[in-house]
Design a protein that fits this description.
heterodimer; A: seven-stranded mixed β-sheet; elongated; B: 469 residues; 18 helices
Amino acid sequence: MEPITAGSGLPLSEKTPALRLLILAVFVVFATRLFFIQVIFGGDYRMLAERNRFQIFYRQAPRGIMFDRTGYAVATNVGVFNLYFNPLVVVEDAQRRDQEVAEVLKIRKDDLAGEIKKSRTFKRTRLVARQIPPVDAFRFLERQDLYPEFFLASESLRYYPLGNAFSHILGYLSRIQSRGAFEQLRGRGYRYDSWIGGYGLEKNLEDYLRGSDGAVLIEVDARGRPLGHANAGSDRSGGRQPQGLQLVQDSYQGGDVELTVDHRLILAAHEALLKSPGGAGSVVGLDPLTGAVLVLDSTPGFDPNGYIRLDASEIEPKRVEFSRAVTGLYPPASTFKVVTAMAALSKGLDPARRYRCTGRFDLLGRPFKCWKEGGHGLCDFFDGIKFSCDVYFYNIALFTGADTIGSWASKFSLGRPVFIREFPDLTKPGFIPTVGWREKKKGGWYPGDTLNLAIGQGEALATPLQLAVMFAMVANHGRRADPYLVRSLKNPRTGRVAWEYRPRSLTAWKIEDAPDHHWNLLEEALSKVVQEGTGQGAKIPGFAIYGKTGTAQNPRGKDHALFGCYLKDSRGVARLALSVVVEHGGQGSVAAVPVAKKILEEFIRATPDLNVSNFSFEKM
Amino acid sequence: MPKRIFMPFLAKMDHRDRSPWAPGFFGLDISLLVCCFLLFSLGTIVIYTALHGSIYFESLWLRHMAALTFAAILGLLVLFFPTALLAETSGALYAVSLVLLVLVLFFGKVIHGSKSWFDIGPAQFQPSEFAKLATILYLSRLQVRIKERDPWVSLPNRLKIFGAAAAPLLLVLAQNDLSSAIGFGFILFSYAWVMDLIDSRTLSGILALGLLTFVFLLAQIVAGLVLPDLTRVSAYLSRAGFGPGASTAKGLLWVSGFALSGAAVYRFLKGFYVLGPRATWLWALGLAVMLSAAWALSYGGYRTLKGYQKNRMVSFLFPDADPFGSGYNVTQSKIAIGSGGLVGQGILLGSQTSLGFLPERHTDFAFAALGETMGYVGCLGALALFSLLFWRLSRFAELARENWERLVAVGLFGLWFGEVTVNIAYVLGMFPILGIGLPFLSYGGSRLVVNGIEMGLLLSISRGFYVYR
């Protein structure tokens, strides 16, 4: 029965059937779409929802420890506590609880609240407070059961006990710096908050040192109550697991590394350089027989612990990553006279022939000065090296010729890249001007250039590492050993040596065309430098020390002081080859030689078998 | 008339006035009564489920309960007063709501970027919700008056009607409240169609313009996104529904979108046929004007839309492109609904809702919370409930005694049908997220109170259905 309705002028009855059709259409469309989403693909979506309830929380593995040759841990780990917040745990009166936790842990409420807000927004378990002191951490652990949404996890942080002194060897660790860098690294198992080696051995041995990270599964039920078992698994970092955390993957510490350096020598070098007139410079010390780097120091260094602390300053790689010892370039100055001397001997120089030094040397009307104003008088080969007489070397250089000197520089690997095995990227070839280069670039080689080259001035440049290698080669009578820093790698779990460096045979790189008596002549002269000449400051009675000083003229300030030397034990075996550079130190004999002496003394103290006649078991 | 005003309830209880077969519960429409009861109950359950576990549970739940009480009180008040009273005061109500909309621009509180709330002590009051009802009441009354004097509704009168609807629309736009503005748009559109205020050619022209503008806008946004990074074009295309792994639903959506806009353009152009069969230049001109107008509008839109609004459009087209950024809401919403399965996870047991992965779970995405906890059965139930409500409203447009009451039903139909359709569409990932709440189910005190009043009014209207005159 149709109800009686008021007659109307409105055309509504014509329109309402269309409305009903519209209702039906919308119902059918939505019901179909819902059927697809809920009934047909419901299982897939259920799985995605389940995945939301689980969160994986990673803990970075402790890095491998680095020991020096004496077994001193120069890069080690310390444990700290971090506070994490799980936003999925449903609790009542959350804000009051957050404040209570902040009070217990003595952290700022605002900071904690801010981090918790981020965690809630992104729905991810988040690190909300770093590096909590153990006292506060244990006070929290007593109350852990009251706060299921928070948990503490220990993290092992890198610590460098010697700080500055080892900074250029060990480098530093940093968080991943940019999004682009992270995108490249994530495939290798890094996360956005992973530590990664930024420089030095930490960078170059990164894959070996980092170990493999552990993972903890965090699970809550649909009502937001933590699931899982307390004390699940056996995490190496120890400690009791709060409810809801399940260890799914142990973390494994990275491999240990044994270095060739001796921390006592490095500390001595570092201190001596700091006290030297320039306050900056470098020391490179090699074992001439094996190439093991015994001392490597570049002052000033930086504080590698500073990047790890909470108030970490921004890393400035450009400022920090400059190791003078390996990449600093200095004119070799008078230390280059070793090369000139060998070149002259190979051309048949008579060591007894004497040249007169009047303090100046005129070549084609142009005066070349000796460093000593009055001159040295008559000098033979030994006097020339002993007093570092420039005029003597001008004479023998003209006798020898620039080409021969250049080829001998090359034999001593000057002007060629020399690097420490672990730092293949940190190398500079330096530069030795040659006749061909000069004719191409600057319009011709003049005899005066030969004189400049003979005394290592002008355009010649070398790194301190190259100088050390040069003196090691003199000590070995021309045989070169490649410098290396890592003696062995150890498996931290078994303690066994996993890999050990085997030095190459010394004959692999050898200067062939110099007879032994040339080397003996040079050695005698270098010995006289230390015993009677410019290197007297490094004389230690009872020990055979050979050296050559250098004073590099520096157009931008005070001269750089250089000293290269080596030490032989009582059996005539070379044990240590050193190069010392003191930036803006002035004369080599004044600034660089005392630094070398400090290191030599420390080396003698640290090495009981140097002098067999003095050897006794008490001294060990 | 006097009898209805002064003795409303008693008059309708009198059996002499009523048909012996008159259905109803004390003269009230049973279907609507059931709808009213079930919708408010379902809304309360959904809001409890969604709020549970939230750190704001206590205060929000308290507010919801208070709003529900207010809604019941005001609804009953309206039910026991004659509808004519509201008709007589609709002008005043409309004026008051306009004043409130202006005042909120100066004294309002900004929540989620729109300045549309009055902060009154413990609660907030959103005048735009109230204004929607007042506008429906006033427009109904106005149109009936105009229709009586001017059956064909001359242009000045049409402009008067449009102006009355446009005033609150512009005011809420000034508050930066896009979703309320769209609500007013629904109201206006339903009246324009039902009352033949716009002939079908103009309507199809507007529809075509709107669709083309939307398509051009999307194209511009996608171009602005993709062109600077040409290497990702293929990735975007495959996600948009052209490549492998694209969903059939999205493909259908594209096809139907193009078909609809094509049909609308065709209908618009066909209107020129009356000018002469050979006036092809008019076709071409019309098409050119249409395309350039749509392009100009979409360019203006592209310039004025804010970044997050563009992101929403993009995440509608490519929800997988940035699942943790702009696509997060719709991704999690679909996960929530889908994980409900056939019968749901159970109330308070839906992990997406309880653990808070579902964003805006008590407001915009309340339907997703419903889907997760009650499953396909619950969703179909809610859809059926809404359909019943809309069907009753369409019947009200035929059965109500007074013309203005019929128009009130039409206005509410347009408002609610539009809101429900758009809301569920974007919750299901079928439409860009517009931030329009779901009537009865979404949390919102002002909306709930106004919904109560509206239900009271409709029930009151239903009392007149079967009364003889």
